[in-house]
Amino acid sequence: MSTAPYIAMARNNNWANRTLGRAVAGLSPDIFTAARPGFFGSLAATLDHIYEVDLYYVDALEAGGLGRSVYERTPLTDPKTLLAAQTEVDLRLTAFCDALTVEALAESRTTERADGMVEERVDALLLHLFQHQIHHRGQAHAMLSHAGIDPPQLDDFYLDFGRAEDAEGPF
């Protein structure tokens, strides 16, 4: 077992969120919050959901103890404010993964659920968080298309062929 894939996924996550953030940073509030097909119904709500779930899981990984209280906040609906907040939590996640050890991957963290506390393994929490991000960024990608905006390429991180210029690559 190695920590390298988790470090790579954290870096990919950071890059993909920055790339998507640049695509929405200049949108007017009307376009950003307009109703769109998708589970959360707008770009703003979808990207805010990504952000708040990141807050929840990064806090759990850091053993911060905030639990579900991270959801007691006003949703962010300004694209630049949301991008800045997302960048901050992405940097925390990247720092967490950069400091990982093989032993830490097998540790457990407490997550607060609606019906009580649940212990989860660090490796499983990270995999879930990365999958969650990818899932909802795909929805935001479709919403950009719906808005008539060319969505950015979000899967050119790992391969040398086609790698985006600002993607550091996985390792």
Please tell me about this protein's structure.
It is a single chain. This protein is mainly α and 171 residues long. It has 6 helices and 2 strands. The protein has a two-stranded antiparallel ribbon with strand order 1-2. Helix 1 runs antiparallel to helix 4 (79-98), helix 1 (4-24) packs parallel to helix 6 (122-146) and helix 3 (43-61) packs antiparallel against helix 6. The longest helix is centred in the last third of the chain and has 25 residues, at 122-146.
Features:
mainly alpha; 171 residues; globular; single chain; 2 strands
Oligomer: single chain
The computed structural class is mainly alpha
Q: What can be said about the biggest beta sheet?
A: 2 strands, antiparallel
> Order of strands in the sheet with the most strands?
1-2
Helix content: 40-55%
Show unreliable segments.
Answer: none
Percent range for β-strand residues: 5-15%
Number of strands: 2
First-residue to last-residue Cα separation? 16 Å
N-to-C SSE series? HHHHHEEH
> What is the residue-averaged pLDDT?
93
> What is the overall silhouette?
globular
Quick structural summary:
This protein has helices at 4-24, 29-33, 43-61, 79-98, 102-105, 122-146; strands at 108-113, 116-121. It has 171 residues and is mostly helical. Strands 1-2 form a two-stranded antiparallel sheet.
